[in-house]
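subagent[fold] <- orchestrator: predict structure for attached chain, return tokens only, no commentary.
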Amino acid sequence: MKHTPFFAVVIILVALVGPAYGQKNVYTTTGGEWIFSEASATLGGSEANSILRFSPVFNFQSQVHRDFNDHAGLMTGIALRNVGFIVDDPNNANTRYKVRSYNIGIPIGLKLGKMDGRYFFGGYELEIPINYKQKTFVDEKKTDKFDVWFSSRQPSIYNTVFVGMGLPEGMQIKFKYYLDNWFNQSYKDSNGNAIYANTKVNVFYLSLTFQILKGTSFYYKHKD
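subagent[fold] -> orchestrator:
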């Protein structure tokens, strides 16, 4: 029942947002996200050093908001996100890995505060990885690079949690943590080796989100 979280999220979203869509207290926002990510990583049983990774592109999200009143509401939507990590291999000198994945995200969160100003939010987001990419550097020279669609190196879904603050004019600051190991520890290479058996990576990031559109209008246009 590995797909249970996905169906649970869909059912919750339909139940909460569907009946109210079209009302004035339901609206959409659309924009991008700048992501600053790191990871808590153990490679081959040894702790690895994580390097800050900045990914301003291509991160797209469209959120659906339902405000119950001026001080509380729900948020959901869909996102396409470029997220990953950079680590130094503790078992091989001068070796660094740059890993990223494009994921489709479906969040659901609660908002508390001033809905048209500053508010706090938090919740859960299910992410589905669709494209995996890895680069290997030895002595600062790239020695290997590959990317795979729907790679078995990753789990079929990631369970994540997030908290943040919404700011005026559509900006958001968010912290997010991936509860699942980045790698599928049951994955075996062409030689039958479980190469991730002693590898554990939990990604986390801080991001700045820019909501450009509210509905079909620009968020930043001056009110008459």
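orchestrator: received. Logging for downstream: Residues 32 and 60 are 5 Å apart (CA to CA). Helices lie at 4-17.
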